[in-house]
Design a protein that fits this description.
Largest sheet: 10 strands, mixed
Strand content: 15-25%
Number of helices: 8
Order of helices and strands: EHHEEHEEHEHEEEEEEHHH
Distance between the termini: 63 Å
Number of strands: 12
């Protein structure tokens, strides 16, 4: 049950430097390093190619066709935050456009993740304000129903608590609980270093079959080569 009609002003944010470093590693590496959890559903896509952002979550709970609480949320944004908006019911209306983006950007927001629609995407791309959404729609919204700001929300299948780290890029969106941020960064950095070594071997011509010692398991599984 969601808490409605409330704005929590004081939230504990994950370390901003840790968030930035996780963002540089990317969603795929972070997701793997965290044990393959925290990933939002794959319908969440960036509105332009090459979008990349990471920050601490300001959460917003919206109602279908109503973007009132996004305006309320703007006041709570601090530099380095990334706004995550969930909706109480399925909706693809265009909740967010260039005017709200201008406001969010002025407050220091790194971007928006919204389980609904957005519009004015050409202008948003020109502004270099990254948004991840499940739809693009010119259909507008009203301002009539109270939701909440900075409460735990379920966004595109992922639980997001205010202050969590959110990493988003062309591969999707992943949420790292603030309590796991430092540990996940260490694991992700180690994974990236390991992959760098593998990449060098593959570039030199080593086959994955040999690097991963796959030949014997394949033989036992019954793989046969026919010349």
């Amino acid at each position: 049950m969601y808490e409605l009609g409330v704005v929590h002003r004081n939230i504990t944010r994950a370390d901003s430097d840790v968030a930035a470093k996780l963002g540089a590693l990317g969603t795929a590496t972070v997701h793997e390093a965290m044990g393959r959890v925290g990933l939002m559903k794959p319908y969440m896509r960036p509105i332009y190619n090459g979008a990349q952002a990471a920050g601490t979550a300001i959460t917003v709970l919206l109602h279908p066709g109503d973007n009132w609480m996004l305006h309320v949320a703007a006041e709570q944004i601090r530099p380095g935050d990334l706004v995550v908006a969930a909706v109480t019911g399925d909706c693809t209306d265009g909740y967010f456009g260039d005017l709200l983006a201008t406001s969010f950007k002025a407050r220091g927001a790194r971007g928006l993740v919204i389980d609904a629609g957005v519009r004015d995407v050409r202008v948003l791309a020109d502004m270099k304000f990254p948004v991840w959404s499940k739809a693009i729609s010119a259909k507008g919204t009203v301002k009539a129903t109270l939701g909440s700001v900075n409460v735990p929300v379920l966004c595109a299948g992922a639980l997001v608590t205010p202050g969590d780290v959110v990493v988003a890029d062309d591969d999707g969106v992943v949420v790292v609980p603030s309590s796991m941020a430092q540990k996940t960064l260490q694991a992700a950095a180690a994974r990236e270093a390991n992959e760098g070594e593998k990449r060098a071997k593959l570039a030199a011509g080593v086959l994955g079959l040999d690097m991963y010692a796959m030949r014997e398991p394949l033989l036992k599984a019954g793989l046969k080569y026919v010349d």
